[in-house]
Design a protein that fits this description.
The complex is a heterodimer of chains A (239) and B (121). With 239 residues, chain A is of the alpha/beta class. Chain A is built from 8 helices and 5 strands; from the N terminus they run βαβαβαβαβαααα. Chain A has helices at 14-26, 37-46, 63-72, 90-99, 111-150, 159-162, 167-213, 216-232, and strands at 6-10, 30-34, 51-55, 81-86, 103-107. Chain A has a 5-stranded parallel sheet with strand order 2-1-3-4-5, sandwiched between helices. In chain A, helix 2 (37-46) runs parallel beside helix 3 and helix 5 (111-150) runs parallel beside helix 7 (167-213). The longest helix of chain A is centred in the last third of the chain and has 47 residues, at 167-213. By secondary structure, chain B is an all-alpha fold. Chain B is built from 6 helices and no strands. Chain B has helices at residues 7-16, 21-48, 55-67, 71-86, 89-94, 96-118. In chain B, helix 3 (55-67) packs antiparallel against helix 4 and helix 4 (71-86) runs antiparallel to helix 6 (96-118). The longest helix of chain B is centred in the N-terminal third of the chain and has 28 residues, at 21-48. The chains are: A alpha/beta (239), B mainly alpha (121).
């Protein structure tokens, strides 16, 4: 049995929608229905789906227009679309596959064929989702490297990637550890530089005091201060 | 003359429901609703002279007829569809009466099949 998925059935016929819903729900899928392409696009814009089963001949917006709209939309173009088609409509199927349809489901429906084609499309969708997630997490690692360079690195930014149990997770954990070491070393260096600055400032101050107190001017001032004290208070003249 | 409904197709439809007679009856009801609507659209197209509106209901009725094994109805709709696609509009218009006649026979047979499955429920 394939993984269960969220399936959108698009068909103007209530009977076809009901048949497909019954078969799909038996396989554990969650099913939504649309009676034409416009309804389908509205649903696709408002909630996520894993596969679309699309009839071709419908009122308002037919299957070709709907498929073209899906494949022109960056957010939807990777969504698998299985065309629902009569066995005498292979030309239409070929045209749809050229537009980007994944597969086709012949009418009248057969549960085994539906099961197999939906399973294959869902597996493809899952693989694509994993690939996208992987690429996104690689971007996180690259972003963290840039942030480390510019001083804005936050270890928590890689928590999700580091939790992976594959090579990318190992890379992220190694990066987090090494970045932590780099940050700790930078912090120690900053502390040492600050301490050195204090020592330098203190030495400079001592040197300045020494320069001032050893100058003739200072000695002269000191001598005059002593004379003044003597005049004011002769008993304190030696102070 | 062959039966209006192919028993194997009906068995396949029942198999799709997992043997659920209630759901099977629901599908037959859905056929009756869809077929009545498509037939009305065909007749409206004839009445209004909207020849470009013959193709879609003929196609949809053919698709539903195929699902329940209504072979003669399927063939009649397929012929109308082919005529309409090739621009043979008078021929296409001329087939609507035969489709109406056959659909009435099919509707009777579907009602019988439904009664046999679930009684009058």
């Amino acid at each position: 049995m394939p993984d269960s998925g969220r399936v959108l059935v698009v068909d103007d016929g209530a009977m076809n929608r009901r048949v497909l819903r019954a078969a799909l729900e038996t396989d554990g899928h969650a099913v939504s229905e649309a009676a034409n392409g416009r309804q389908a696009l509205d649903l696709l814009a408002s909630e996520p789906f894993d596969v679309v089963l699309l009839d071709l001949v419908m009122p308002e917006m037919d299957g070709y227009e709907t498929l073209t709209a899906i494949k022109s939309d960056d957010a939807l173009r990777h969504l698998p679309v299985i065309i629902i088609s009569g066995v005498d409509e292979l030309d239409s199927v070929v045209r749809c596959i050229e537009i980007g349809a994944t597969d086709y489901l012949p009418k009248p429906f057969n549960a085994s064929v539906l099961h197999a084609r939906l399973g294959a499309s869902l597996a493809g969708k899952r693989l694509r989702d994993l690939e996208l997630e992987y690429l996104e997490q690689v971007e996180h690692v690259i972003g963290a490297a840039g942030a480390l360079e510019s001083g804005g690195y936050e270890p928590a930014s890689l928590a999700a990637v580091a939790a992976r149990d594959d090579a990318l997770g190992l890379l992220a954990r190694t990066f987090v550890r090494m970045a932590g070491e780099v940050q700790a070393r930078e912090s120690r260096l900053r502390q040492e530089v600050a301490e050195l600055r204090i020592e330098i400032d203190q030495a400079k101050q001592a040197q300045r005091v020494e320069e001032i107190t050893s100058s003739d001017y200072f000695r002269d001032l000191r001598s005059r201060a002593s004379e003044l004290r003597q005049l004011v208070d002769p008993e304190d003249a030696g102070g | 003359m062959p039966e209006p409904l192919d028993a194997e197709a009906l068995d396949a439809l029942l198999a799709l429901t997992g043997g659920d007679a209630g759901l099977y009856a629901e599908l037959l009801d859905a056929f009756l609703g869809d077929a009545t609507l498509y037939m009305a659209e065909l007749e409206a197209a004839i009445g209004s002279g909207a020849d470009d509106e013959l193709l879609r209901p003929a196609h949809s009725l053919k698709s539903n007829a195929m699902s329940i094994g209504a072979t003669r109805l399927t063939d009649l709709c397929r012929d109308l569809e082919a005529d309409a696609r090739s621009g043979a509009v008078p021929a296409a218009r001329g087939r609507v009466g035969a489709i109406r006649t056959e659909l009435d026979v099919v509707i009777g047979a579907v009602r019988t099949a439904r009664r046999e499955a679930v009684g009058d429920a």
